[in-house]
Amino acid sequence: MEEGVRATAEKNRAAGQESLLKDILDAFPGKCQDVRAYSPLTLAYIGDAVYDLIIRTVVVARANRPANELHRITVRYVSAPAQAAIIQALMNELTEEEKSVYRRGRNSKPHTMAKNASLGDYLKATGFEAVLGHLYLSGRMDRVLELVRKGMELAGLEL
User: Fold this and answer.
1) What's the predicted TM-score (pTM) here?
2) Which of 85, 86, 95, 124 has the fewest Cβ atoms surrounding its Cβ within 10 A?
3) CATH fold group of domain 38-154
């Protein structure tokens, strides 16, 4: 049976896993679809936000600095080349399902392009973001955090 995003979040909450996703969906009720039905660019859209929130949270937690300095530090990690390096380092760590989502994201036809990235890096970053979005909407924030932490470590991008 296909589970929608809300059902997955509720199941994880019942299993004792607190969830920002569940809190958001509770505050803004409505119909949710199965995560497998989302386009790869939709998954990348939400995955980009999740990744950005993780990096910003870590940067802010490490030091209270002026906003422009926080932004300068954050940009090093949220760039397409950095994300491409992370996903390349993680390829042997991904499950078959995650690899499939990555390929769908990487092979998508984005309507925009990053200013300071090659097309190859941009598409790899889009695939990485799609994986993060898929995991987040599946209620797997634990796996998102594991992949981001391990990927940064393997790519030599310690915060």
Assistant:
1) 0.86
2) 95
3) Ribonuclease iii, N-terminal Endonuclease Domain; Chain A (1.10.1520)
